[in-house]
Write a structure and sequence with these properties.
The protein has 13 helices and 17 strands. It has helices spanning 12-27, 51-67, 78-88, 105-113, 120-123, 164-168, 176-188, 215-223, 244-251, 269-275, 281-294, 313-326, 353-376, and strands at 3-8, 31-33, 41-46, 72-77, 95-97, 146-153, 172-173, 193-198, 231-234, 259-261, 299-306, 330-335, 382-393, 396-402, 408-412, 421-429, 435-439. Strands 2-1-3-4-5 form a 5-stranded parallel β-sheet, sandwiched between helices.
């Protein structure tokens, strides 16, 4: 029996696809082992969102070949789509598998081991020309509390800084029936929380024949009724999907987690326009108002890019002021990374790294203070927590988990409560990112 090891790089969609490839290989007779072990096949599901991600992907591929020079090293995913010709010449890489070809991995390996030549169309396609959703699925995940469910692929937004539409292709959505079947199966095994993910989740169902604009909401309504599912959490959303009807419907579902990641990228309208983000700060502000009207103290999180080409000190101040006004639970700050192949990489006014770092540091400090403020707002309240894993804090063992708002909470270690939903009162902070609770 051949041994296979897989390593995921990048987003939650990649995580799901890596799980799916592992299960495909297992069904094909491979023994799945840890990536640190000596394996016959190493599969690296690569990322290409930034130049740094490209470099990490290359490093991981070379690390796998160094671990076992006789092993077959497979490069899969987004970096393959961006740099297929380069990888075909890399002596550390034996097989490349692009997006929408991952479900063929067992067959590709079978042909490779048989010494038969692979046609390029078998492992790499023009991803921008396909409208077919790749039929990957999972029937288990590591752990027994949360499962990531991929429901959508591709993006049609073409933000000026982003390479993803070129590596993932156009929007493609998974059929509702397939999603429901997978969630029902996982729910029957005891997984209580489902996280819906996609490359551009807000586009889910936009290409369906009936052209329904509320396909995501309709799916959530159906998933909410599945026995055993206690929580539905959404991945990153575009602000424009949030309307009064959207929020009203979701607020009426018993399983929805009031945790909304709304990608912002900049609090300056002029920068948003250069980014091709297709909304204004006024529209974003209204979206936050709607969510806070329909949900009690929802967790609103976001992404922000500092040092985008041409960002002036005034534009940066507009972003800082906007973040201070909205008061996000968590703000993920990224220094702009010049990505070859995007429009932003050719823009004038590239910002020096020292300026990016200074601006990033300021926003990181502000974000940390607002995050602590949000966590403290729950002190004295009763909250439900899904207990997940052990953590050691100041030499003491705790069992930790998350509320529906994704606030991390802890109780003294109790192995019997792992994977259970518990209710407790938020008592005090354990550091800046965790709350100690007293069970009721």
């Amino acid at each position: 029996m051949r041994k296979a090891a897989l390593r995921n790089l990048g987003c939650k969609v990649n995580y799901y696809e890596t799980e799916a490839m592992a299960q495909l290989l297992e069904k094909a007779g491979y023994e799945i082992v840890a990536f640190e072990d000596r394996a016959d096949v190493y599969v690296i599901n690569t990322c290409s969102v930034t130049n740094i991600a490209d470099r990490k992907s290359r490093q991981m591929l070379h690390r796998a070949k160094k671990r076992n020079p006789q092993a077959v090293v497979v490069a899969a995913g987004c970096y393959v789509q961006a740099a297929g010709e380069e990888l075909e010449k890399d002596p550390a890489v034996d097989i490349i598998v692009g997006n929408n070809k991952k479900m063929d991995l067992p067959r590709i390996l079978e042909k490779f081991f048989a010494g038969r030549e692979l046609e390029r169309a078998e492992y790499l396609i023009d991803i921008g020309k396909t409208r077919q959703y790749e039929g990957l699925n999972i029937d288990k995940v590591a752990g027994h509390t949360r499962a990531f469910i991929k429901i959508q692929d591709g993006c049609d937004q073409f933000c000026s800084y982003c390479i993803i539409p070129y590596t993932r292709g156009r929007i493609r959505s998974r059929k509702p029936g397939e999603i429901i079947k997978e969630v029902e199966n996982l729910g029957s095994q005891g997984y209580q929380e489902m996280v819906l993910t996609g490359i551009h989740l807000s586009s889910y169902g936009a290409e369906f024949e009936d052209g329904k604009q509320n396909a995501l909401v309709d799916l959530l309504v159906r998933l909410d009724k599945i026995p055993g599912i206690k929580r539905l959490r959404l991945g990153s959303l575009e602000p424009r999907i949030v309307t009064e009807d959207f929020a009203r419907t979701l607020a009426g579902l018993k399983t929805i987690c009031p945790h909304f990641h709304l990608s912002l990228q900049s609090g300056s309208d002029s920068v948003l326009k250069r980014m091709n983000r297709r909304y204004t700060t006024a529209q974003y502000r209204e979206v936050c108002r709607i969510l806070r009207t329909w949900f009690d103290n929802p967790a609103i999180t976001t992404d922000v890019i500092t040092g985008f080409p041409g960002e002036t000190e005034e534009e940066f101040r507009e972003t800082a002021d906007f973040l201070r006004e909205i008061r996000f639970y968590e703000t993920h700050i990224f220094k702009y990374s010049r990505r070859e192949g995007t429009r932003a990489a050719r823009m004038e006014g590239q910002i020096p790294e020292s300026v990016k770092a200074s601006r990033s540091d300021e926003l990181l400090a502000m974000g940390a203070a607002m995050s602590l403020e949000y966590r403290k707002s729950f002190l004295g309240q009763e909250k439900e927590v899904l207990m997940e894993e052990k953590a050691v804090i100041s030499h003491r063992e705790y069992l930790t988990g998350y509320t529906k708002e994704y606030v991390r909470a802890a109780i003294p270690w109790d192995e019997g409560l792992k994977g259970k939903l518990v209710t407790g009162v938020f008592q005090e902070m354990l550091g800046d990112d965790m709350v100690l609770i007293k069970l009721l």
